[in-house]
Amino acid sequence: MPTKTHSPATTEELSAILREASALGRTITPTGAGTKLAWGNAITTDDTISLANLSGVREHSWQDLTATVGAGTTWSALQSQLARHHQRVALDPLFPERATVGGILATNDSGLLRMRYGGLRDLVLGMTVVLADGTIARTGGKVVKNVAGYDLPKLLTGSFGTLGIITEATFRLHPLPAHTSTFTARSADIAALADLMQHLVTSAMSLEAMQLRNEPDAFALDIQFAAVPEALDDHEQRLRRLASKLSLEPTTVDIYTTREQLFAIPNATILKLTTLPTKLSALIAGFAQLAAHGITAQAVADPSGIVTVALVAPAAGLATILEDLRARLAPIGGTAVILQRGALPTDIDPWNNPAHPPAALDVMRAIKNEFDSHRLLNPGRFVGGL
Amino acid sequence: MFTPAILDELRAAVDARGLIVDRNQLQTYECDGLTAYRTLPSAVVLPRTTAEVSAVIRICAAHSIPFVARGAGTGLSGGSLPAENSLVICLARMNKVLSVDLENARITVEPGVTNTQVTERVKSAGYFYAPDPSSQTVCTIGGNLAENAGGAHCLKYGFTTTHVLGCEVVLPNGDIRWFGSEHGLVDSPGYDLPGVFIGSEGTLGIATKAVLRITRRPETVQTLLAAFDSATDAAQTVSDIIAAGMLPSAMEMMDRTSIFAAEAAVHAGYPDCDALLLVELDGPTAEVQAQMAQVRSLCSTNKAWEQRLAQTDTERALVWKGRKAAFAAMGRVSPNYIVQDGVIPRTALPAVLTRMKQMSEETGLRIANVFHAGDGNLHPMVLYDAANPGEEDRALILSYDILRMCVDAGGSISGEHGIGREKQCVMSYMHAEPDLATMQRVRRAFDPNNLANPEKLFPTPRLCGERRHGAYIPHPIEAAGIAEVY
Ligand SMILES: Cc1cc2nc3c(=O)[nH]c(=O)nc-3n(C[C@H](O)[C@H](O)[C@H](O)COP(=O)(O)OP(=O)(O)OC[C@H]3O[C@@H](n4cnc5c(N)ncnc54)[C@H](O)[C@@H]3O)c2cc1C
C-alpha cells in the first residue's frame, strides 16, 4: 500500500485510523507542524498522521488557572488566547509561531522559564491520548491536585510519540507578569558571571529567567525579574550592588529568542547538553575557547542545567567535539543530544554514545512493549531505539 | 504463613535482627492510618541496604510472595495495609542522609528518612524541603514518593513529584535501577520513570534512594486571617486573589463547624464567623508587603469583617494552630467522623458547598469542611454517631457520594491521601475502563506477576463487592499531638 497522510479532525477519527493501521501492521509517524521531525533517529514509516486539524483552545477556565487545548494548536495561538485573561502556560518553547502543543509535549521542549516554573511535566495536568491499537485513554485530570492513579501525562510528555498520540492536553496556567525588568551583565571573566548567577539563584529575589551565554569577545548573563514595581526597584538596587565590578545595563534584545536564533545560523550543528548547574560555566568557557581553533560555537545555558550550543566546524572536528563532550559529561550522567545534525556524520547516534545507554532502558522497553507491542508508532526514533 | 525454608532465606538476606515473625510484633504492621482495615502480614523485614531490599524481593519473586512496602505507616488510604499472606518490607532502618550538595540545591537520602529530617539537615544553610504534609515529622520520604505527598504550601511550591530529580528503585523482580538522574540532572532523554513511579503507591517497586531538590527559604512570610459571614464571600476572595495575578503560598478555608471545633480544642482565638480564610504570602519583602495590601483590600471588598495579620513566627503559629487542629478537634463536636479528600475546580466551590448543604439536610448528617481553597482540595468530614443503628453506613455512603460529586464537578477523588484500599472502588467512577486499562499496561511493564502491593489502587471485582466499615480513628501520631491531619 502506498504511503498515506491522514489528518483526522477528532480523537475518534484518529482512533479509527489507528485501529485500521494496527490491523494492517502499518507504521506511523505522528506530526504536528514538523518543526522537530529531525530530532531523534531518522526513521521512515508507512504512514503519517498530522494532528494539525485537531486544533483550538477547547476550554479556558481562567479562574481555575487551567486550559484544555487540541494537540494541533500552535503554541502562540494558545498563548494569545490565554493572554486575553493575562495568563499563559509558563513555558517558552522553540518555534512558538509554528510548533504545536502535541509536538512540544512529545519532545518535552522547554526554555528559560523552566528555572522558575518547572518543565512541561510540571505544567501538564491531563491528556487525551490514542494508543497504537486505537484505545482512547483520558489521563490525569483538569484540576491542579490529583493523586488518583498513575501520572500518565508525565510518562507521555517527552516520549517522542512512541507510546501514543496526544490529541488534547490540559495545562495549569500562571499569570502573565505585569512588570518585568531585564538586565545583561558582561565580563571577559566567566567565573565572575557564574558567581553572580549563583548569588542570584540563592538570593530569594523574584527571578523570572536567567541565561548565561558567550559573545564574540565576552560572556554575558541575562537576568529578568518579574515582580510588583516596588520589588523591581529593590531588586535592581541589589543587583547593582552584586554586579558592581561588572558591566551591567538594561537588556535591549528579547532574551526569549536567543535559543531559537541559534537555529538560524547557516550549517550549524545544534546540541542540547544536560549537566549540573555548577558545571554550566565550564562548558560555556570551553565553547568560547573553540574560537581559537577556527570553530564557531555559540552557547546559551539555562541555570536549571541545560545548554544549547550551535557549532560550525568541519565534520571531523564536530565528531571529536561531540565525542569529547559525551565522555566528559558521562561521569555525572550528563547527556549531549543532537537537535540539528549540520555537518555531523549521519552514523553518530543523536541521543548518546550507545555504550552509555540511559539507566533503566530495559524498563522503558517494557513500557514501550506494553503500549505498542507491534512497534508501530515512531519505531526506533527515540533513545536506545525505543 | 511462610515455610521455614522461606524464613531461612529471608533471615539470610536481612539477618535475624531484620526479620519479624512474632505475632505480637507483627501487629504493629497490620494497618496504616486507615485503621478500619487490618491484615496481619506473614512476616516483616527491616532491610538496611538496597542490596538487602533486592535480595528480599528476589526471594518474593522466586516464591511468588506478594510484598508491601512500608515507611512510617501514616498513609490514610490503606497503602501499606498488608495483603493476605504477604511480606511487609519496612524501610524505616534505611534512614541516612547520603549527601548534601548545597551549590546545586540537591540532597540525596534513603527512603526511611523523615520529611522533617530533610529540612532539618539544610535549614542552617537557609534551605528547606518544600513538600510539607502535616505528618512530616513522622512520615518518610519513601512514603512521600509513593503517595506524591503535598501540604498546605503546595499551592505555590508543588507536590513531591516537583522536587524529586531521581530515585533508585528495586523492581518487582529484584533488579536495581535508577529512575531519572542519580546526580540530580534535569531532562535526560528517556521516558519519565520518576514521574510515573511517584504516586504509584508502592505498586511499581520500592524506592531505596532519592535525590531531592531543596528550596531557598523566602525572605519574608506573612499570614492573614480574614473572617466572613458567608463561604461564598470567602470563596470569591480566593478567586479574586488568583484573578489579580497573585500566587499565595497557601490559601485555606474553614467553615463554621470546623471553626467551632478548633476553638473548643485549642482556643486559637478565632472570630465567630461562617467562614475563615487564611492567606499566606511569601517571597521578597517588598513584594510580600505590596501584595498583602492588595489581598487585604480584596478581603474588604468581599465584606470580611475582621482581618488579622501575622508577621512573626509566633503570630503565624497561632493563626495556623486552629487550622491544623481542625480534624482532631472534630471529636469535640461529634462522637465519630469520616475524613474525605476530594478535589474540585476552584470555581465550583460555591456550587459544591450548596450541594453539600443539601446532602447534609437530606441525610440528617452534619458535614464540616476545611479546604486547601487555593487548589480546590476539600477535606469534608461527615459527622455521625456510631451508637445510632445504621448511621455509620449512611455516613459512609454520604462520604462516597461527596467524592462522586467532586468528580461530577470536574475534579478528582483524591488530592493527597491516595487511593490505596480505601478508594479503589471509586476509581471506576472517575476513570473509564480504557483509562484504567492504560494504567494497567504500566503496571504490567513493571510488575507482570502482580506482586508489588497487589489489590491496591485499581478496582477489583473481589474487593469492590465489599464495603468499608468504620469511622475515622485518629492515627496514633495524631492522637499523641505530633501531627495534625489538615
Ligand atoms: C495525621 C496525619 C496527617 C497527614 N497529613 C498529610 C498531608 O498534609 N498531606 C499528605 O499528602 N498526606 C498526609 N498524610 C498522609 C501520609 O502521611 C502521607 O501519605 C505520607 O506520604 C505517608 O508516608 P509513610 O512513610 O507513613 O508511608 P506509609 O503509610 O508507610 O506508606 C504509604 C504508601 O507508600 C508505600 N511506600 C512506603 N515506602 C515506600 C518506598 N520506599 N518505596 C515504594 N513505596 C513505598 C506503601 O506501600 C504505601 O502504599 C497524613 C497522615 C496523617 C496520619
Helix content of chain A: 25-40%
Summing up helix and strand content along with how strands pair, one would put the structural category of chain A as alpha+beta
Poorly predicted regions of chain A are none
Outline the biggest β-sheet of chain B: 8 strands, antiparallel
Q: Over all CA atoms, what is the radius of gyration of chain B?
A: 23 Å
Helix tally of chain B equals 17
CATH class of the largest domain in chain B: Alpha Beta
Extended strand count of chain B? 19
- Weakly predicted, low-confidence segments of chain B: none
Return the CATH class of the largest domain in chain A: Alpha Beta
CATH architecture of the largest domain in chain B: 2-Layer Sandwich
Spell out the key features of this protein.
heterodimer; A: 386 residues; alpha+beta; Uridine Diphospho-n-acetylenolpyruvylglucosamine Reductase, domain 3; Alpha-Beta Plaits; 12 helices; 18 strands; B: 486 residues; Uridine Diphospho-n-acetylenolpyruvylglucosamine Reductase, domain 2; eight-stranded antiparallel β-sheet; 17 helices; binds flavin-adenine dinucleotide
Task: Please characterize this protein's 3D structure.
The complex is a heterodimer of chains A (about 375) and B (about 475). Chain A is of the alpha+beta class. Chain A has 3 domains: about 5-175, Uridine Diphospho-n-acetylenolpyruvylglucosamine Reductase, domain 3 (2-Layer Sandwich); about 180-255, ACT domain (Alpha-Beta Plaits, 2-Layer Sandwich); about 260-370, Alpha-Beta Plaits, CATH 3.30.70. Chain A has helices spanning about 10-25, 75-85, 100-105, 115, 120-125, 150-155, 190-200, 230-240, 260, 280-290, 315-330, 360-370, and strands spanning about 5, 30, 45-50, 55-60, 65-70, 85-90, 125-130, 135-140, 165-170, 175, 180-185, 205-215, 220-225, 245-250, 270-275, 295-300, 305-310, 335-340. Chain A has an 8-stranded antiparallel β-sheet with strand order 14-11-13-12-16-17-15-18. In chain A, a hairpin with a 3-residue loop joins β16 (about 295-300) and β17. The radius of gyration of chain A is 22 Å and the shape is globular. The mean pLDDT of chain A is about 95. By secondary structure, chain B is an alpha+beta fold. Chain B folds into 5 domains: about 5-90, Uridine Diphospho-n-acetylenolpyruvylglucosamine Reductase, domain 2, CATH 3.30.43.10; about 95-215, Uridine Diphospho-n-acetylenolpyruvylglucosamine Reductase, domain 3 (2-Layer Sandwich); about 220-330, 2-Layer Sandwich (Alpha-Beta Plaits), CATH 3.30.70.2190; about 335-410, Alpha-Beta Plaits, CATH 3.30.70; about 425-480, no CATH class. Chain B is built from 17 helices and 19 strands. In chain B, strands 12, 13, 14, 15, 16, 17, 18 and 19 form an 8-stranded antiparallel β-sheet that branches. A 5-stranded antiparallel β-sheet of chain B has the order 5-6-10-8-9. In chain B, α12 packs antiparallel against α13. Chain B starts with a helix and ends in a 7-residue tail after the last helix. Chains A and B meet through β8, α6, β10, α8 and α12 of A and β9, α7, α8, α10 and α15 of B. Flavin-adenine dinucleotide binds near residues 76, 150 and 484 of chain B.
